[in-house]
Amino acid sequence: MIAAPAQLTDAERRAQKVQRLTQELNLSPEQQKQLDTIMAGVQAEYKAIHQSTDPQIDQARQKGRERIRTILTPEQKPKFEDFLRRLDEERKRNASPPGR
């Protein structure tokens, strides 16, 4: 069995992007520092946006699930719940851990 690749921290992802752009654009060391600062700011903005909208997205998701449950037969409901459990587990695995 192949182990899943470890998730990268924000700093590691940012360093990879800076390195790639350095190679593509032949950035100077000063430009690399400036680019890293810019990208760190953008990452912080992304996190703030996610934190403010995640509760709304979760609420919409739950409302949709409740609506789906109303159209299912008693035989379908346990299968749907199992499907949701797997979906939620996958979402948790793919989400960046807090503080990254």
Features:
single chain, mainly alpha, 3 helices
Structure overview:
- The radius of gyration is 20 Å and the shape is elongated.
- The mean pLDDT is 89.
- The protein is built from three helices and no strands.
- With 100 residues, it is mostly helical.
- Helix 1 packs across helix 2 (29-71).
Structural class: mainly alpha
Write down how many β-strands occur, each being a DSSP E stretch of 2 or more residues: 0
Report mean pLDDT, rounded to a whole number: 89
User: Measured on Cα atoms, how large is the radius of gyration?
Assistant: 20 Å
Distance between the termini: 27 Å
* Count of discrete alpha- or pi-helical segments spanning 4 or more residues: 3
What does the largest sheet look like? none
Anisotropy-based shape: elongated
Low-confidence spans: pLDDT under 50, at least 5 residues?
none
In percent, how much strand structure appears in the residues?
under 5%
As a percent range, the share of helical residues equals: over 70%
SSE arrangement, N to C: HHH
How are the elements arranged and paired?
Layout: H1 10-25, H2 29-71, H3 76-94
Offer a concise description of the structure.
By secondary structure, the chain is an all-alpha fold.
